[in-house]
Amino acid sequence: MKARTATRAGFQPPLGISLNKRYKFRKMARNEHPNVTNSNLIGIGLYTPAEASRLVGVPVAKIGRWLRGYQVGEQRYDSLWNPQVDLGDGRLYLGFRDLMEVRVANAFIDRGLSPQKVRRAIEIARNIIGEERPLSTAKFRTDGRSVFLQLIKEDGSDEMVDLFRSQHVFREIIEPSLKNIDFADGIPSRWWPNGKQARIVVDPQRAFGQPIEADSSVPAAILAAAAKAEGSAETAARVWSVPVGAIRRAIDFQKGFDQRLAA
User: Fold this and answer.
1) Cα–Cα distance measured from residue 69 to residue 78, given in angstroms and rounded to the nearest whole number
2) With contact defined as beta carbons under 8 Å apart, do 180 and 193 qualify?
3) How many CB atoms lie within 10 A of CB 110?
4) Is 218 within 8 Å of 13 (Cβ atoms)?
5) What is the C-alpha separation between 243 and 14, in angstroms, rounded?
6) Positive or negative CA dihedral for 77, 82, 88, 91?
């Protein structure tokens, strides 16, 4: 993607807070991804492998292998798919759709499929479903078993026959990885990592897809940091002109987030 001067519309602070707090919001937002100035990333999302790992619970090394490919001896294994984002700096970044695909791919690999078989399944699914990143689509949820039945014909694996012989088993694998996702025209549009009741949402249209507190639209990391800086959730809520509940929800989310980082 070619960089160009643009407003950081993906990091717009909520209305009703002071100019000073709006400045602090934008400054903290810039620190998340200091190299990003491209408005084309709005609606795509932007995550480093470490950020993606903390969100979806898949190790950084696996994400790197799946999206960059890897070599074992003389054998080269291609990436499962090409990432949405290329900032031209040689580093790996994920978009929101990549994040959702990683969750589904991981579900199948955890059940014993090799990454190579998942890669072939993606190729078949692209033809059947017509999407570059088909695993996390609503259509894959309903039609995905036919992808693996075709793969079984190619592969002849007894293990795969056992795994996909019934729609029930297929749904048992895929449903948890598509849980708490909002779809628009069959494509993932928002993800509620801890469920809607927790009010933390990952939305590529806002804050470059960083987790935000849904009612205030402020990134959870910023609200949690504000509570720490101000000494209490109540004081942070007054400073940021948001409900105390929004601060507490952000704190709870960040605790889980940080625990996954430490694990």
Assistant:
1) 4
2) yes
3) 11
4) yes
5) 13
6) negative
Q: What is the pLDDT along the chain (263 residues), one digit of tens a residue?
A: 433 222 333 444 444 444 454 444 445 444 555 444 455 677 899 999 999 999 999 999 999 999 999 988 889 999 999 999 998 889 999 999 999 999 999 999 998 899 999 999 999 999 989 999 999 999 998 888 888 888 888 876 666 676 677 778 888 889 999 999 999 999 999 999 999 999 999 999 998 899 999 999 999 999 999 999 999 999 999 999 999 999 999 999 999 877 765 55
For β-strands 70-72 and 187-191, DSSP reports them as unpaired
Neighbours of 255 (CB within 10 A): 11
The 3-state DSSP class for residue 244 equals helix
**Spatial distance between the Cα atoms of 204 and 97, rounded to a whole number of angstroms:** 9
